[in-house]
UniProtKB/TrEMBL annotation:
Keyword Membrane listed: no
Keywords: Oxidoreductase
Gene3D superfamilies: N-(1-d-carboxylethyl)-l-norvaline Dehydrogenase, domain 2 (1.10.1040.10), NAD(P)-binding Rossmann-like Domain (3.40.50.720)
Residue ranges occupied by any 6-phosphogluconate dehydrogenase NADP-binding domain in the UniProt entry: 8-162
Domain of life where this protein originates: Bacteria
GO MF terms, alphabetically ordered: NADP binding; oxidoreductase activity
Matches recorded under InterPro entries: 6-PGluconate_DH-like_C_sf, 6PGD_dom2, 6PGDH_NADP-bd, HIBADH-related, HIBADH-related_NP60_sf, NAD(P)-bd_dom_sf, RedAm-like_C
SUPFAM superfamilies: 6-phosphogluconate dehydrogenase C-terminal domain-like, NAD(P)-binding Rossmann-fold domains
Protein name: 3-hydroxyisobutyrate dehydrogenase
NADPH-dependent reductive aminase-like C-terminal domain boundaries: 167-290
Length: 293
């Protein structure tokens, strides 16, 4: 259903993600102009969007400008070109390019010095998830600016979550979730490779997916509570015992002549906590040794 008053939106970047975002806004009934460095890709977005070749035309007179480029360096180079700041007068800039909290802080400095309202966002979705319940977008910046645009922004993700006024907070949460995802994925891929190296079909391991996912979930809950209380004692399993288990994993990897780099790195981290005197504490005590280099 078309919104009662369509929002004029410029979407900068017609890559895989930018194209999906632009089509989602258009399909919700908004007026969407798309711009891309390579104009043919902007023309291919379709779905009721209008491709424009002039960047300033894509920015001028929009209530929202949504940016989805490869990185902040590309955004910074593009938005420092002549006429961009004045074309953005009265517009809210929503940065959906992925980056670090430091990138977000630099972008806010630019927005402030050019009088532009700025929200820094992080999308947790593949392009095919956009506009479905599987998409989540985190936002950081001034709450009133977020509230003003929430109705429009929900076209890309109903699950549009305000994190904090601190401009780096959406990127920080995104990096944290992605680290857990990449680290967890590497761990289960190494685990499957260990099974294969020992002549065990990896599907036997994957059949027990719920065992390791369940353990991670229970440990995450315990970690949250222990970190809050700053008390890592408990009667379940000491770090000393966990280190012994990790040593078995390193030995298996070496015996099977496969890469032991990943379990060795894990072992080093857990051993560091033991060396710091935490050997009789529970596993989440490693947290204490991770806040310093
Ligand atoms: P992509 O398909 O590679 O698109 C990259 C876009 O950036 C293209 O429009 C490209 O223009 C543009 N670009 C790169 N350098 C530029 C420059 N110097 N000046 C102007 N434009 C430049 O990447 P994507 O998958 O859409 O990702 C876009 C952003 O979304 C990234 O920050 C990514 O981390 C984030 N993201 C993506 C996903 C995903 O699943 N794809 C998920 C979450 C977040 P040209 O077409 O001219 O090269």
């Amino acid at each position: 259903m078309a919104p009662s008053s369509p929002t004029k939106i410029g979407v900068i970047g017609s890559g895989l993600m930018g194209s999906a975002l632009a089509r989602a806004f258009a399909s919700a009934g908004h007026e969407v102009a798309v711009w891309n460095r390579t104009p043919s890709k902007a023309k291919a977005v379709g779905g009721g969007t209008v491709a424009v070749e002039n960047l300033l035309e894509a920015l001028s007179g929009r209530e929202l400008v949504v940016v989805s480029l490869s990185n902040y360096a590309a955004w910074s180079e593009l938005f420092s070109s002549a006429g961009v700041a004045s074309a953005l007068a009265g517009t809210t800039l929503v940065q959906l390019t992925s980056g670090s909290p430091g990138d977000a802080r630099e972008a806010l400095e630019w927005a402030k010095s050019n009088g532009v309202d700025y929200l820094d966002a992080a999308i947790l979705a593949y392009p095919s998830f956009v506009a479905t319940d599987a998409a989540t977008v985190f936002y950081a910046g001034p709450r009133p600016v977020f509230d003003r645009h929430l109705g429009t922004l929900q076209a890309i993700a109903k699950n549009s979550i305000y994190v904090d006024e601190k401009i780096g907070s959406a990127a920080a949460l995104d990096c944290a979730i992605l680290e857990a995802y990449y680290g967890g994925s590497l761990a289960f891929l190494h685990a499957a490779a260990m099974c294969e190296a020992e002549g065990l079909d990896p599907k036997t391991f994957f059949a027990h997916k719920n065992s390791f996912l369940g353990l991670i979930s229970v440990t995450a809950d315990a970690a949250q509570s222990m970190i809050e209380r700053n008390d890592f004692s408990g009667g379940q399993c000491s770090l000393n015992t966990h280190v012994a288990a990790l040593e078995h994993i390193v030995r298996l990897s070496k015996d099977a002549r496969m890469s032991a780099r990943f379990p060795k790195e894990l072992l080093d981290n857990y051993k560091r906590a033991v060396s710091a005197g935490l050997g009789n504490k529970e596993l989440p005590a490693v947290f204490r040794t991770l806040t310093q280099d």
